[in-house]
Amino acid sequence: METHERDPADRGGEHPPGLPLGPDSLIWRYFGDHRMALLGPRAAVLQNMLPALGQGVEDHSVWFAETLARLQRSIPPIFDTVYGVEPESSGHEVRDFHRTIKGRLPDGSPYSALNPDTFYWAHACFVEHLITATDTFIKRLSRAEKEQVFAESITWYGRYGVSSRGTPRTYAEFESYFAQALEERLVAHRTAAYGVGYATKGWPRPRRIPAPVWWLVRRPVNAVSSSLTIGGMPPRGREILGLPWDTTRERRYQRFARLSRGLDGAYRRLPGRLRVHVIPLRAYLREGRSA
């Protein structure tokens, strides 16, 4: 059950000290990397498995009618909170967009997107996605590097101007927080199940692709999409959503992950525009650095 909404300015004490974000930070280095997409929609699906967040998406967004459009609108403001010229202003815009997202859960209890518990879960899923995608597809992260990402994420979260009450203060606490959510708090909410439905049912034919062409490519497209989507979910998440997986698929997934990590050197020799989202790429150029 959700607790009552608090004023975002009620920080419950100051945010714990975090590390700076900038061209030398790990979050800058990895968050805008296109290889984040190799983990599939992990962050978005886990976010919507929290009942309050999933219900807010169902009640107040066009998730079912315009899934891709919603993602395209959501990503740039989040990037601006990390890479923008005025990141605090961008963070406050993200926060204020959520002010009207409130209502009641099926059991009658209230929910609000600005409830610190709900808002932090959305942020935590981005952080966990970044760490997992980097460790899986880019390079193995040391414990110290994971702790650094978490410390930088405290600075990132502080830019939203939302209470930090009850949020993890260390990476060890963050790990326990996330594990506890997976075991005890997440559910197969309709929005989450919809977000991974194509992984088992396959994609419908895009309007711009002729039917004969789609007939030729749909099997490999759906196979890759299913592997990245289901493989990118944590085992407990798959269990909750009833997603099929087995040891054979896991071995193939891990072989692909090893190949991706092995190609990191070659990947980094590609032009920045092919490796990094345009918003972080512009941020690096603004700082006189290369991505």
Q: Could you write a compact summary of the structure shown?
A:
By secondary structure, the protein is mainly α. It has 16 helices and 2 strands.
Any overview of this molecule?
With 291 residues, the chain is mainly alpha-helical. It is 60% helix and 2% strand. The protein has helices at residues 26-31, 42-48, 51-60, 67-83, 87-97, 116-138, 143-158, 171-184, 190-195, 198-201, 211-231, 235-241, 247-262, 264-267, 272-275, 278-286; strands at residues 102-104, 110-112. The chain has a two-stranded antiparallel ribbon with strand order 1-2. Helix 2 packs antiparallel against helix 6 (116-138) and helix 6 (116-138) runs antiparallel to helix 7 (143-158). The longest helix is centred in the middle third of the chain and has 23 residues, at 116-138. It is globular and about 50 Å long. The termini are far apart. Residues 1-13 have low confidence and may be disordered.
Question: Could you give the topology of this structure?
Answer:
Layout: H1 26-31, H2 42-48, H3 51-60, H4 67-83, H5 87-97, E1 102-104, E2 110-112, H6 116-138, H7 143-158, H8 171-184, H9 190-195, H10 198-201, H11 211-231, H12 235-241, H13 247-262, H14 264-267, H15 272-275, H16 278-286
Antiparallel strand pairs: 1-2
Helix pairs in contact: 2-6, 4-5, 6-7
